[in-house]
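2024-03-11 09:14:02 INFO queue: dequeued item Calcineurin-like phosphoesterase domain-containing protein, len=712
2024-03-11 09:14:02 INFO validating residues
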Amino acid sequence: MLAISLLPLLSLLSLGGLAHALPTTLQKRNNWPPEGSCVVDLQIEQCDDFKCEKEGYHRIDTFLTQREHADSWNYLFYKTEDAISERCITKIKVVDEGGSKPDGDGWDGINPTGGPQIYVQRDPAQQAKGKVVDLVVLRPGRWANSTEDFTREPINLGLGLDAGEVVFEDWREWDAVSSGWVWLEYTVGGSRDPITQVQVVACPTGSDATVCGSDLLGQGFKRRDTNLNGPTANGSHVFLFTSTQPIYEGDVSCVGGLKVVEEARKGQRGVIPVNLNEGTNGTALYLSVVRSSGKVPGSCLTSVIPLDTSRYFSQAHYTPVLLEDGSGTPANLNDGIPSANPIYLYTSTEEDFRAIHKKNTEIKDQLWFNSTGGFRIALYSDLHHSSYAPRCRDVPESIKDTCSDDFSFTFMGTTLDITQPDLVVIDGDLFAENGRASDGVTYPLLTDAAIAKAIHPILQRGLPFAVTWGNHDAEGSLLREDLQRTMDIQPGFVGSRGLNHLDGIGNDKLDIYADAINQPGSAKKHSLWFFDSRSYTYLAENGTASGNYGTVEQSQVDWYAANADSSVNALAFFHIPLGQISDKVGINTTAITGVHGEGVCPQGNGCDDKVNLETPYVPLFDAFLKDGDVRATFSGHDHANDYVIDAQGIKMTYDGSAGYTAYSAGDPNYNREMRVIDITGWGSTASSYKIIDDILQGTVHRNESEPIVTLY
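2024-03-11 09:14:37 INFO prediction written
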């Protein structure tokens, strides 16, 4: 395997202060995050099945079982607007059933159907500051902590133990939904508040890690998901907490920096007296907090994250916390514990995030054809990364003992260097559950580190990229909304959360222009569509999975139909394929090119080549035929399929699998693969071919056993 050289990350630019808007001003927000919008209404609807809709509202897919009838489908909907006004919600409270209305003015209860009551507040003073709610989520599972940007309401909206069969905590979305714990969380627009306090809590081995440090949660602290002492069977549960509340009234000081110090510094000022390796034979390490007056811009930390990874990864908008020994080495918080993963701590200021925001805003409108009318896309699917060092799957016997996720990095990096693409697309399943290589055990599924791995080779090379979300991506510690927010702050990311009222997250359309957009006469010549095919459909019994895969819903199809432009050609990307990709449904006009190595597992169905196109009916393919701009589609999901067919004039294409920790066809002649898409003639023609990792020969090259496929 070829080694990937470490290249510098994109340089960061500074960005001026954020604009404030008056509550009655219909002004477009210039806030962080870039895709934020003002939530103006919340509603709960009781439904008969999974196909629950409310016009103009976004449905949160986690359904509520806290109401009077546990077997009913109760969904929370929210409505957004792009301008700050007196309609914007500024705060949300959940009150126990029969509890009192929250103190203060401006509180309104949303439609109750039994169970806990949800109230919303509209505070003109906060609206004037741009401090308005821009995202609402329901987070399933017992873990009594909230992710960094989210404010959690501490009243469980689920039925708890009364939900029936309870999964203790698996983090996978279908099990977590059935566990009976559902928490409402929300984010507030505008700049992040300075971190004022940092605490570390160690809870003994055998204690309930889900509630470790819960007393701090009641004091306004937020706990990070990562156990700083894991994954290991030994030692205490150690968690990091932060607060943005002042230490005392009128105090404007903040946390200006963090360092990791050894035992000799224990007891000194600013050192938190909790061993980060409590209960293990690892190196005794402690966190030292450096305080700042908070009067200088950029002097306050606004983000602190630990990443549980198999190696150190630089983070584009973060600075690693160093070991205070003069070496300048990022501190491994699990130093000296062979059974545990390396864990690194990262910090950032608001200025770091704003710089990425500005850079991405500039890049998003700068996709154009080169001087010869060409545009190249490097397409990867099903990387299946995990936070820890996972086992490789379906690889030749001769490399089983040496194979690791390094092989995935190397293959991706090598193909990026070979192809020199204008855009990189990852077509879903960046993350997936895997057994750890050292012991085969699957530990709590921390998605953030896996995502860092998936995009690392792209960030190293400073390339623009976009993603679709797959069925596995939300099975870990992050929801789809979290995943999208993570991508929004990456340098080079050109995607978007999409319109809030659409089903799914990340529905987007990118246009490719004739030349640099700032050149006179530049015109749109080609389009790229991205659809969220979501994860799974559910049965009504407390959220258990039905075994069928998610679909592109009618709201997404309507959005496409309203914006399709048949004057230019287009490509469409979605992780789970449409049923028309099967060669068994009788509508195909050409023979298969490529390998049909497993059953088709399309949208709305289980896995069977004889796909039922009527139940459920997924209207996306018919919309493509009617509106006429999409000439080819690309999907992953079924790793052992990499074929192309022509279905009524639309080329339908499988991506194959690029990740060594994902299952594969296991062909002894090569292993993983990616797809190159060449758009030529300023969008008038396009072709595609596969590049394979010929692992036993030690070469990466085009799969010359198959012809280059003309897409249109």
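2024-03-11 09:14:37 INFO annotate: The first strand starts at residue 38 and ends at 47.
2024-03-11 09:14:38 INFO item closed
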